[in-house]
Queue: 2 jobs
Job 1
Amino acid sequence: MAIIYGVGVGPGNPELLTRKAERILRGVDVILAPVSRPGEPSVALETVREFIDEDRQELIIHQFPMTSDKARLVSAWQAAASLIASHAEAGRSVAFITIGDPLFYSTFIYLLRIFQQQFPHLPVEIIPGISSINAAACEALLPLVEGDEKIAVVPATAGIEIIVDSLTHFETVVLLKVKPLYGEIIELLRMTGREQSTVFVERVGSPRQKVLTDFAEISAHSPDYLSLMIVK
Ligand SMILES: C[S@@+](CC[C@H](N)C(=O)[O-])C[C@H]1O[C@@H](n2cnc3c(N)ncnc32)[C@H](O)[C@@H]1O
């Protein structure tokens, strides 16, 4: 029985991978990388490509559709977990790679639950990764919280009311998954006087990184999926 690893690869820069993650990725027999659409590049895989030897290691690209259709999601999670488990049962160690941290809004969380429920005999190890939030704050030179301050992390998909509520109760609010609600968020930040205290960060750690602090620029921008906002 081999070990199943959930490996956090950080936000997209190979230098922001832990030494442990690198050691495990170089040593495993199988690596499973997630994509949301066939043929699309995997950010996690691009981040660790230099540590993988495809002559020696098997690389599996697995599709996890970006959908709210629970049945399709569950079936993709189950297929991936069963595939990983079958390799581990055959004595091959497997790493599931994920951007940022594996226990922070990651598909790995759903796979972990399946391993625990259906394959409790298989050992699982999780390697933490640098989250996009920490990397973004560092790039923006922006302290996230200090002293007694409180921080809220809100996926914008939770809805505009939740964001309003968080802005009222927390000194710092980090908004993830901002793309679908971007226009409404911009309007809310304008109405609540957050123009001077909002930072927008896209694709942190990658060559396409963007850090915007000017509200006019933030408002005019069309964000992609890998973007977040830090609001003080
Ligand atoms: C499913 S969550 C994954 C979070 C990830 N596990 C982490 O620890 O950062 C996806 C959201 O995280 C944020 N995100 C992830 N990687 C990012 C990056 N490189 N730059 C900016 N935001 C990122 C975006 O808000 C994106 O919509």
Note: Strands lie at 4-8, 30-35, 58-63, 94-98, 124-127, 151-155, 172-176, 198-202, 210-212, 227-231.
Job 2
Amino acid sequence: MTDYNALKAHLRGELIQPGDANYDDARKLYNAMIDKKPEAIVRCVDVADVMACVNHARSNGILLAVRGGGHNGPGLGSCDGGLVIDLSRMRGVRVDPAAKTAQVEGGCVWGDVDHATHPFGLAAASGIISTTGVGGLTLGGGIGHLSRKCGLSIDNLLSVDVVLADGSFVTANDQQNQDLFWALRGGGGNFGVVTSFTFRLHPVSTVMAGPIFYAVEDAPAVMKAYEQFITTAPEEINGFFAFIVVPPVDLFPASLHMRTVCGVVWCSTASQERTAELLKPAESWATPLLVGVGPMPFPVLQSLFDGLYTPGLQWYWKADFVDHLTEESIARHLEHGSKLPSMFSTMHMYPINGAVHKVGSGDMAFSYRQTKWAEVIVGVDPDPANKDKIMKWARDYWDAVHPFAAPGAYVNFMMEEGTARVEATYGANYSRLQAIKAKYDPENLFRVNQNIAPKAVGAGS
Ligand SMILES: Cc1cc2nc3c(=O)[nH]c(=O)nc-3n(C[C@H](O)[C@H](O)[C@H](O)COP(=O)(O)OP(=O)(O)OC[C@H]3O[C@@H](n4cnc5c(N)ncnc54)[C@H](O)[C@@H]3O)c2cc1C
């Protein structure tokens, strides 16, 4: 066990170790399938704490993990036997309503941002759940309800403050450290600890949102019509296709409770009348079981699923980018999507188009700009006894549809799947990422992530 006394002397935040009363609580991850036991967890309260931890880990050869919201599927916000920089005490948000920007500390979750921006009639391009960390979601790309209108979270990132592997503190944006800024927009936690993100905000307050559900047997007709629709729909409309089990809550008619359905979860920034007009065709793709689209404040939409997906469930993720659907891939989706193994399990297809296509594949580290969807198959269940069941379902489903998909997957929807998969995900951007990694983190201190191996330009293999 490493001696952490020297580090402790430099900290304002709490250092938690095995044996401390709150150790088991502090090390818990959102995904209860992952059980990691770090040597020490530091709940940093400021940038100086982060710098002290980075310096301590580097100087003593200690494995280092960085935890934002703790939501990562394979638990890459923690490690076994090393030091965890836990940013969950660094959750300040400062909104500049005139400039329409928000400065967001590295440990915020999206609910913190929504809470701070909504009173100004503004919103950030985030995800679909309020409890997910800003840090991990943004650094991987950031796909959500506003993607088609506003782009990915990284497309709205204006500047970041970063603690690098050598313990120094830098700002990266379009004017300073441009290579680092390029790499951070999609390259995950590989390049340093981001202590502050500055985002462009959008005038989004009340949205027209909710699901349209159809019988699961209608999935082939719905998926075909949905592909055509979402490829050309105005950017103010976002909608992700899903197979879901309707939860037994008052929000949904009792007749649908626990029924497996397919559908699209819509979010429109257009007016009520225009949204109704735009979505009218979707009501004839098949006979809807429910048309549940209505006005709601954006933060309400963002937290709609929070009660369903509480911390401590078992999660197993499989993912792909998908360029288009075929008769056969749709048949395979129906086969597996109609057999969701639990009420929480699901398959989502998030559109990667609209405003997301306005950025080129080489403009930032996130390279899959020209694809149509980020697809994710997630087996989820509260009971650890069902772990094997949900994993098998997700793997079988993925094995069936992967032959029709692109080689890479969204890094934030992957488990630990090896270097080749990470390389396929970054495609032509991978070698530039390796060179930037070699410049900023040559010893690979930040390696508890979807890792990009450092490789200086001109270095052999
Ligand atoms: C319920 C749920 C819903 C989700 N919905 C969406 C969605 O709508 N859209 C979407 O794009 N993704 C979504 N995701 C996936 C999500 O983007 C990833 O799980 C992401 O890794 C979560 O980030 P985090 O900060 O919570 O995770 P963590 O586990 O804390 O961290 C994940 C990775 O990011 C790194 N990291 C985190 N913060 C920082 C930081 N400040 N500086 C440097 N590195 C950092 C960590 O080191 C780690 O490698 C969802 C996940 C869950 C569980």
Note: The mean pLDDT is 97.
